[in-house]
Amino acid sequence: MSKSMPSGNARVRRSCEPCRQKKTKCPAEQPICSFCRRLNQTCIYLPRYNSKAGIRRAPKVTTDRPSSSRLGPAVDGTLDIPSHSNSSWSPVAPEPPSEVLDHFVEIYREKMYFQPLPLFNLSSLREGLATFPNHLRWAFLALTLHHSNHSFYSGMEYEAIRFYTASSRSIAMDLSIKGATEIEVLQSICLLALCEIIAGEPARAWMTIGTVSRLETLRLSSTRTFSDDTSIADTISRCHWSIMILEKAFTPNFTCLTQTPRNPDYPKSASRPVSLGPFAGGKSHCPGLSNAHEANSQDLGINAYSLQVISLWGDIISYLHNIRSGTTDSPWLSTSMHNQLAVKVYELECKISHLHLLRNVSFPDRTPSNLSSYREYWTPWLLMQIMSHVTQCALNNPFIHLVALRGLKDVSLPRSFLQQTVDHALFNSRWVARLVQMCEDLSFWIEDPLIGQAIAATATVPWLFQFARDEKVAAQAKENLGKFETILKRQSIMWPHIAHKLKVLQALQCRVDEMFQDASTESTTIRFDPELLWELLNPTISQTVPGDTSVLQSTSESPSATIQITTKFVHPVAESQEDQPLGSGVADSFFQMPFGGFHDSFLEELLSESFLSGSI
User: Residues 355-380: what's their mean pLDDT?
Assistant: First the structure.
């Protein structure tokens, strides 16, 4: 069960723990006092605790130094882990017994691996925990405690999380200031960044991600050759690509690793589950879609394709950020940034091996126990599948092309191009909803905050299409919107920035409900703040702080900062409404925007018949 941290930052002691133990006056310099620096010992400032029993003794801390090699055994700074426990946790004895570590390794496998970081190899994680330096083990425990609990902590979860986080941060960030590029240091900072996001500290997480990405570029610049040891190479690879994910997922507008001349190989992928056969379940097998050349395609592994689509997602979000900042683009031109990104989407589709396509892995035909047994494969597979569709939804989002880009240039866009983007967005958003429903049916819960962010962005598509006059299109859009909201509600318990997106989506829908109640004409006229849609597509770091309602309040207090939309959907000429499939029938939309001086109609007489139908 997830836990929310108390609001506000914990007060930190003025004296470090070594000085408190020796009962000497601490100079109180941070992050390391001159006394500890002179004695070459670890300097830790712990938060104050408010437990009734109080804390009379400081924990015994051993010296934690960087490993002698880039990935050595990292024995320095480790503690002996008890094999069994007869007591509960306390800052005096912070190390959990072996059975607790076993529990948290399983929690990591179920709820944290590739959600979103593939930081540790599951096969060697349990053995490695015993030799991790203190700062890495503590960062691991701090993060896993957010996701689960154990009787060893017996009501001291918050105190333990604060202890582990503060202690790990004190050591790891001090080492980072000195330019330490050991893999263990980078791994610790990656985990701390996620802890800060969960704690509702987006600005601190932004700085932490920037620190670890700079350290990784420093490490790469000083590395002449990559290790021949497959185990070491895989650990380095997992750390590198985890840092890339942090950048692309949480700071896509400012990245460092995209400018590095070379990258490590992709981390080793789990084997593909045994095939169920072409007619095992019949829910996903499509023999008619086979390609004669598929058998000759190279399979890089599911991890490689998942990482590639995450990188592409970050590029698209960065593109949206530039549009929000006022950068103009003519997306229908071959030289446009939109077209360059679209080419990358198609290139990635060509690269993905047919072995990992939905029709060949039979995901909806699997049992929950089968999915659990092969979770190391299915977690990145689901990420790859969903992100492949949400990239299309973001790139072709109707709000971007019918409002944002046209508002910037105040000129007409080609109607056929606009129709193409509408069809792409509608088709792919339905596939996202379909995949989400598959997971719900199989109890394969989506824990990944990156998927949560992507689903929030995708929700803008059905939010717009719920105004369709075609009742089937509108009903399908409302149903899909409900599915997306269910995922966001579940993730909002753990992730404050997802909770913020949920509030934004609910604020948008609240205005829609009010509009439907007051509707007196056949045409649908709604008013909403464009900043609300931007917050779902490309939020700013300052507007993801828990409890920040400035964006929501501005909607009701600033009627001039709204967009008025009158939308009508006309049925295709050749088909009746009753025979119209859900995959077609989007047409004739009129977007009017009296905001910021924009006054032209955004889309007129747009007739369509969706050309995208079928399955993946």
Answer: 94
DSSP one-letter string for 268-325: PPPPPPPP--TTSSSSS--GGG--TTGGGS----HHHHHHHHHHHHHHHHHHHHHHHT
What's the pLDDT at 544? 54
Average pLDDT value over all residues in the chain: 79
Residue 453: closest CA among 376, 386, 518: 386
- Structure confidence at residue 396 (pLDDT): 96
- DSSP letters for 563-601: EEEEE-----TTS-TTT--TT-----EEE---STT--S-
The answer to whether 484 and 530 are in contact (CB under 8 A) is no
Tokens 């380095």 map to which residue? Answer: 236
Number of residues that make up the chain = 616
Q: Give the pLDDT confidence of 74-97 residue by residue, as tens digits.
A: 334 444 555 554 578 988 889 999
Encoded amino acid at 525, one letter: T
Question: Environment class of residue 273 by beta-carbon count within 10 Å: exposed (0-12), middle (13-18) or buried (19+)?
Answer: middle
How far, in Å, CA of 554 to CA of 138, rounded? 41
Cα–Cα distance measured from residue 566 to residue 522, given in angstroms and rounded to the nearest whole number: 10
pLDDT of residue 411: 62
Q: What is the mean pLDDT of residues 160-180?
A: 96
Q: What's the maximum distance between 2 C-alpha atoms anywhere in the chain?
A: 88
Please say whether the beta carbons of 314 and 252 come within 8 A: yes
User: pLDDT tens, 432-460?
Assistant: 999 999 999 999 999 999 999 999 999 99
How far from the centroid of its chain's Cα atoms is residue 548's Cα?
20
pLDDT in tens, 9-20: 445 577 877 787
Q: What tokens does 466 get? A: 């719920």
Q: How is residue 81 annotated by DSSP?
A: P
Q: In angstroms, how far is CA 89 from the centroid of its own chain?
A: 32
Peptide bond into 116 cis (omega under 30): yes
β-strand pairing of 563-567 with 524-528: antiparallel
Q: Rounded CA gap, 100 and 150, in Å?
A: 7
CA atoms in the 13 A half-sphere facing the CB of 88: 10
Per-residue tokens: 530: 């464009």
Contact between residue 375 and residue 110 where contact means Cβ atoms under 8 Å apart:
yes
Cα(43)–Cα(49) distance, rounded to whole angstroms? Answer: 19
Element containing residue 166 per DSSP (H, E): helix 157-177
How far apart are alpha carbons 486 and 491 in whole angstroms? 9
What is the residue extent of each domain of the chain?
59-259, 297-591
Are the C-beta atoms of residues 93 and 152 closer than 8 Å to each other?
no
